[in-house]
Specification:
With about 180 residues, this protein is mainly α. The longest helix has 21 residues.
């Protein structure tokens, strides 16, 4: 693929994330997204047939980046609880570094697009889902749907980052511990 084309598509995805984070789903028309991305509206439609397809593509990309970041420094030999805390901390740090990411996730996950976006994200090789399926961690988790495990386990990290809630390291550890307790038996 042409690097300029890829850069324009990436710029459009980045712009929609920023606009949705700042103005909600209805504040991110294709024209506004194109303007924020520095491309013509027609160019945005060349890459994405609809606003919904653009939102889903931006969501899938962000979830892939989040998952990859969450496990990059993970010690695969660590006990399940330690791996969970490492993932929780990495998710929070990644989203707190740029809270627009967290606000975008909150908006999409609370929208009618949530099911489709989530299902499309799961079509990718999600390293977080791979962790949930490791035998030692799976044995500790409550038998709940992945979406519920996400909401109970990592949802607070997303929401704290989205609201830019300042927490000490001890408070973050306490929240991570509460999340661990919520998802395990």
């Amino acid at each position: 693929m042409n690097p300029v084309t890829t850069d324009r598509a990436a710029a459009v995805r980045h712009a929609v994330r920023r606009l949705v984070a700042d103005h909600g789903l209805h504040g991110a028309s294709m024209a506004a997204v194109a303007k924020a991305a520095g491309v013509a509206t027609g160019t945005a439609y060349v890459h994405y047939a609809s606003k919904e397809e653009l939102l889903i593509a931006a969501y899938v990309e962000l979830k892939a980046d989040l998952g990859a970041t969450a496990v990059v420094d993970l010690d695969a030999g660590a006990p399940p609880e330690a791996r969970f805390r490492s993932i929780w901390s990495a998710v929070h740090a990644f989203l707190a570094e740029d809270p627009t990411r967290a606000r975008f996730l909150v908006q999409v996950e609370a929208s009618p697009l949530a099911r489709t976006a989530h299902d499309r994200a799961l079509l990718e090789d999600d390293p977080l889902v791979a962790q949930v399926r490791t035998p030692d961690l799976a044995a500790r988790l409550r038998p709940l749907p992945l979406e519920v495990l996400w909401d109970l386990g990592l949802g607070p990290a997303v929401r704290l980052a989205a609201t830019e809630q300042p927490l000490t390291a001890a408070q973050r550890a306490e929240v991570a511990d509460a999340c661990w307790q919520a998802v395990t038996t």
